[in-house]
Amino acid sequence: MKRKYNILLLTLLLAFASCSFTSKTFENDDRDKQLIQVITYVLEEGHFEPKEMNDTFSEDVFEHYIDQIDPFRRYFYQSDIKEFEKYKTELDNQIMAYDVSFFNLTHERLIKRINESKDIYKEVLANPFDYSINETFNTDYENLGYVSSKKEMKERWRKQLKFSAIANYHDLVTEQENDSKRKKELSELDPEEINNLSNVEKERFFNEDEDKKFVKKSNTELEQEAREVTLRSLDELYDFIDDRQRKDWFTVYINAIVEEYDPHTFYFAPEEKDRFDVAMSGKYEGIGARLQKKMDNIIVNEIISGGSAWRQNKLEVGDIILKVRQEDEEEAVNVVGMRLDDAVKFIKGPKGTNVILTLKKVDGTIKDLSIPRDEIELEETYAKSSTVIKNGKTFGVINLPKFYVNFQDYNKRNAASDIKKEIIRLKAEGMEGLVIDLRNNGGGSLKTVVDMAGLFIKDGPIVQVRTTGEPREVLSDKDRSIIWDGPLVILVNELSASASEILAAAMQDYKRAIVIGSKQTYGKGTVQNVLDLNRIVKSNTHGDMGALKFTTQKFYRINGGSTQLEGVKSDVVVPDRYSYIDIGEKDQDNPLPWDKIEAATYTLWDSYFDYDATIKKSNERMQNSEQLKLIDENAHWIKKIRDRKEFSLNYNEYKAKLDQSEDEAKRFDKLADYKTNLTFKSLPYEMALMQQDSTLKIKRNRWHENLSKDVYMEEALNVLNDLKMSYGVKTKVAATIKD
User: Fold this and answer.
1) 253/401 same-domain check
2) Which of 105, 211, 495, 552 is the most exposed place for a label (fewest CB within 10 A)?
3) In a domain, 576, yes or no
């Protein structure tokens, strides 16, 4: 089936589903078996590189799954693993037969062991830890074996809990030492100076209520408090674990299977699919509040700026939701003790409807509050822009967190259309050069990046895609209009992936932009589609089946090279804190290999700017930058700290090592002190919005402050300035590239 460039990939896949999958009947009385049946069929028929179901595949699934459900080796015993290993080379046969007996066995045993562990950690934390004993704790869990007895299990928990508690103990000791020092300083103040102190310090150090007043505690009391902090943390963790239903654990098993295909193939349970859609579109229908569960309570922990709850201004952070009632129903649903995902389902709903919340307010009063539902936009998802003056020239900066899109309607808000609007607004402010910041941008919609790249060239190929067994397809910009033809810099780092790499690669191949950043980007050169599994199950009696994201294509640069594993290599390489950490595609499990195809036909950008001289000049600046040298040293230090596995549980040794690390870290303090003389400014339309939205103003001010301390942004602006200065120096040359 031929894929068309101008059709959203999701729609393509659903069309593929309706054409290719409907001839297959998926019926099973057991939901779990039906889910395996559907998913394995889709992967066999639609994955770019289907896996052979054999003993090797089975062993890999086995290891991955066990690691997922017991990563710290503190639930299962050697006897459990020995029993499970009978299935180690049989899982491929079970999967093909839609047999879930291995999952049933491991799930039942896991729940049993989790329940046993509750008694263990409570028993361990009921007794004091002796921090004078010389013993160590190793965090290399991957190479940790399984215990053979309850005595060994309790000892494993003891060491893990002591490791957690010693950190809490150190924090409490340090806090008390600082408080004691501060109290001594305050005791020397006169009454007028005391009166000028903050209310917090007055409350802490001069309160007449002995229960609230600062009193120095003994080491024994601090040790007990440290254990209590650890206990509360574990109790909260186990509340979350207890909320997980069998279907949640089955999702873990399913993903242990599908992730053997490649790192980006993933099964979304229904709630996860909703979250994925929100993340990709930046929109959902609800009241505009983020919630968290603490113990049995559903608590409001953020009011989303611009949402209906924010506009109403009656819901507060810290409010506890007790009951939820729909406007057309008389009965309210008690959500105390309910799973957070289930409670959210009752609160969300169609735009234009109301939901009535029974709240325990921050002040302790109980109130009913009716809140209208609306379409909520998550502002942090979207592109934002700013102007900055450098050497008398106005430059524009656009930060793009992801290549967002509305899967249901492409013509609604998407990253490409937003970038176009921001460029037009920046041009109205006299922009002479543009920086697009794609750092930490993990990608998104393929069609969106093709449309976005077209904003900077007249027309031509942007990216090539290949499906197994089909000829390559060249996705091109066919709109001859150019929104920005001036100097362009793209900022990337090791976490710039997928669509970010497509844009950076295309602009680099056309010699349309200079790419500044890490040695290489993430290295994700694959395309995924999301298939609603309900669309291919004709007679679904098991409820929502969720969705499957799976790899269907690989994409390639217009020069024929793949970004898979290798990423995009920056024109100007600058070190950052991720430089020596394994976080790229090549460091993941089961990545698809790198390869190369025929180049597309394209014409280099006609430019009077001297890119080669500008890149050379920038590289020279980077090599002489003291700030970047320090950043590189910091990156080495971060890797050393991350690679450390052995920790002392003797407090004196623990503290000495921590003090040593803190002393080493002090030489990097001046990284945070770095400041440019650049001032960033929001565009007029945002300035007007800020008059009504103080939260937006705070967020933009924080962004601008960070930009003014950003050595990478400073260099991007230097490059734009150099490009402007080189205008007319380089002879206009057009070269046609064809393999």
Assistant:
1) no
2) 211
3) yes
Q: Is 738 exposed, middle or buried (0-12, 13-18, 19+ CB in 10 A)?
A: exposed
Tokens of 730: 């380089």
Q: Are residues 314 and 393 in the same domain?
A: no
Q: Identify whether residues 373 and 383 lie together within a single domain.
A: no
Same domain for 343 and 360: yes
Stated as kind and residue range, the H or E segment containing 9 is helix 9-16
CATH number at residue 317: 2.30.42.10
Q: What pLDDT, on the 0 to 100 scale, is given for residue 67?
A: 96
Of the pLDDT bands very low, low, confident and very high (cuts 50, 70, 90), residue 214 is low
CB 204 within 8 A of CB 176: no
Q: What whole-number distance in Å separates Cα of residue 81 and Cα of residue 463?
A: 47
Strand partners, 137: 647
**Does residue 738 form part of some domain?**
no
The enclosing domain of 583 has a CATH number of 3.90.226.10
- Looking at the structure, tell me whether residues 334 and 391 fall in a common domain: no
Angstrom CA distances, 125 to 112, 120, 219, 718, stand at 21, 9, 16, 57
Where does the pLDDT of residue 208 fall: very low under 50, low under 70, confident under 90, or very high at 90 and above?
A: low
Q: What is the CA radius of gyration of the chain?
A: 29
Asked whether residue 13 is domain-assigned, the answer is: no
C-beta separation of 579 from 520 below 8 A: no
Contact between 519 and 463 under an 8 Å Cβ cutoff? The reply is: no
Residues 63, 140 share a domain = yes
Q: Residue 735 — very low, low, confident or very high, per pLDDT cuts 50/70/90?
A: very low
Around 462, how many Cα atoms within 13 Å sit in the side-chain half-sphere? 26
Residue 144's nearest CA partner among 91, 206, 66 is 66
Query: What is the reported pTM?
Result: 0.85
Q: Are strands 434-437 and 393-399 parallel, antiparallel or unpaired?
A: parallel
208: Cβ contacts below 8 Å, ≥ 6 apart: none
Supply the pLDDT for residue 726.
75
The answer on 303 and 156 residing in a single domain is no
Q: Which of these, 337, 332, 253, lies nearest to 294 by C-alpha position?
A: 337
Q: Rounded to an integer, what distance in angstroms lies between the CA atom of residue 492 and that of residue 504?
A: 8
Give yes or no: residues 372 and 480 share one domain. Answer: no
pLDDT at 305 over 70: yes
Q: Is the pLDDT of residue 436 over 80?
A: yes
If we measure between CA atoms, which residue out of 284, 297, 286 comes closest to residue 323?
297
Q: What is the span of the domain harbouring residue 541?
A: 379-725
Q: pLDDT for 252-294, tens place per residue? A: 999 999 999 999 999 999 888 888 877 777 778 889 888 888 7
If one counts the domains in the chain, the total is 3
Phi, psi of 220 (to 5 degrees): -65, -45
Q: What are the tens digits of pLDDT across the range 27-70?
A: 667 889 999 999 999 999 999 999 999 999 999 999 999 999 99
pLDDT band at 736 (very low <50, low <70, confident <90, very high): very low
Per-residue CA distances from 117 to 66, 234, 294, 438, 593 (Å): 17, 11, 21, 44, 42
What dihedral do alpha carbons 556, 557, 561, 564 form, nearest 10°?
A: -50
> Quick one: pLDDT at residue 28?
67
Q: Would strands 384-390 and 514-517 be described as parallel, antiparallel, or unpaired?
A: unpaired
Amino acid making up residue 633: E
Position 683 in a domain: yes
